[in-house]
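QA checklist item 7 of 12: single-chain prediction sanity check.
[x] sequence parsed
[x] length recorded as 334
[x] structure emitted
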Amino acid sequence: MVNYLAIETSCDETAAAIVEDGRRLRSHCLFSQTVTHAAFGGVVPEVAAREHLEVINQVIAQTLKEAALTDKELDGVACTLGPGLIGTLLVGISAAKALSWSWDLPLIGVDHLAAHVCANYLETDLKPPFVALLVSGGHTQILHCRSYRESEVLGETLDDAVGEAYDKVARLLGLGYPGGPMIDKLAGTGNCQAFNFPEGVVSGFNFSFSGLKTAVLRTLEKLHAPIPVADLAASFQEAVVRVLVRKTIEAQKRTGAQSIVLAGGVAANSELRRQLKEQSPVPVFWPAAQFCTDNAAMVAAAAYFCPITGQEPLTAYSRSKDRRRHQLDSSRNQ
């Protein structure tokens, strides 16, 4: 039995969790800054870092209390190294380093994108290989996960990430921040065939969403009041989901994977889940809603299944690294 305490501060969520053997959730505590950043229309890095500093000790203490565990019953401390906002990442890394040193426990670094995929292991018996569609505010990728420690990026966005496109279109429609949940909810009341928005024409398994965002803007400029906001939201979402589902299923067929998993904040999107489940020839999995967005439970799972090794000292990084080059620990999980 292995218990890891994990810390997540890559963006605007301060979270800590304790997970046993990479799957059993012992406790999870999260402080969200969504209300704070909504006033700015997006995340302000300096504000986010300061809020992490104010609450991180309380979040960690509450996590230990809920699990009814002491440091003597832990086997390691894990934290997100990146990609993310450098200032916010450093808050979590510094806290993890301090606890690791004071408790004399191993310090385990985790890649944020790998952690999102590992959220699918929580409270399930899911095992690789599978194809993963990772969709969030900062990233859009199709991955072929051959094992716990080995994954290949088959395709990714060449410009805006899906979540970023949702936020920008929501702003155009006057819906506020964060845009993803608002568009998803509003789209349920609209006509998805009202506007024929184009897919980005990109070869292979790559994506492009900047043109779609521009198409929404140009359509808005031509419309007269009253603006059919629900129809615009539904038509935009249909164009996004259509290309995501089509390319993910193509990747599954190309690789022969026997399952598909969703990961990242946009994995909570109801239309994406519905269409992928209906059209996929293989079983589709996704995390519980609370583990789609940034959280520490997924970090603890990643610390168990695919920790970053060979990087000394552990440092933060802001941009996505090629996970094919990561040396991942596979001693427990062949």
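[x] summary fact logged: The chain has a mean pLDDT of 92.
[ ] second reviewer sign-off
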